[in-house]
Every structure is written in structure tokens, then in C-alpha cells.
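This section describes the prediction task in plain terms. A model, or a person checking by hand, is given the sequence of a single protein chain and must write out its three-dimensional structure as a string of C-alpha cells. No templates, partner chains or ligands are provided. The sample shown here is typical of the held-out split.
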Amino acid sequence: MSEQRRKQQQKRVATVGAKVPSRKMLIWGGIAVFLIGLYGAWWYYTNHRYDGFAKCLASKQTKMYGLYWCPHCRDQKEMFGKAFRYVPYVECAIKGASGITAECKAAGVKLFPSWQFGTNPPKEGVFPMQELSDKTGCALP
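The expected answer:
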């Protein structure tokens, strides 16, 4: 065997031993990346779909009065998801005491959660998103 043929044969043997990703692995890798991207998009949408709506509530001088330990207040907050950070919220509980804050007393809030729309007196209850939209004129996503 000539020197050139021997070198070519050694080259072929070396490349056969090298690991090249198979087509099947590349396809599964692409599917995994796609599913991770899809999950990320879904997570972002579910947690941030009400951002614009919450900002609109703030621009209409809408306030929510609540208590950190109130289960109905928690339900109302969960409706907004991460977008609740844009809703003007007034905490009425005084930690370590049984009373409510002076701001809540001045607003006339007695039941929680309560929503104040503009200069109107606060209204008690957990409001569905559609009702908040109707009262403020803010469009739901």
C-alpha cells in the first residue's frame, strides 16, 4: 500500500471514531428548544397580560384598599397576576395592631377589599375584571 493510501485510510478511521451528532438528536434538541420557548411565552403572557389594564386603572385614579391577611383581597390581587404592582393599592392593616390606618379611616373604608373610582366613595367587594373595566372605561386585553 502506498504512503498516500495509508494516510487516507488512517484519516477515515479517525473520523469514524469521532462523534457527530445524529439527525435524530438534532431534531429532539430542536423540539426541546421550541417547547421551552413556548412555555416561556405562555408564562410571560399569563403573568403580564393585564399590565396595560392595571396602568389604565392607575391613570383613572382608581385605588384598591385591602388588608395583607384578607383572603378576598388576595383573590382580587391574584386576578391581576404580576400586573398588580401597577394597581394603586393602599394597605389598611397596621402590623401588630388590630386597627386600620388613618388613610383608610379617612376614606371611609370598613369592608375589604374596597375600590375607589375617582372621587366617588369606596365600594366593597371583589370585582370581576369586566366590572372594573366597565366602571373605569379601561379596555381589557
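For orientation: Residues 23-48 form the longest helix (26 residues).
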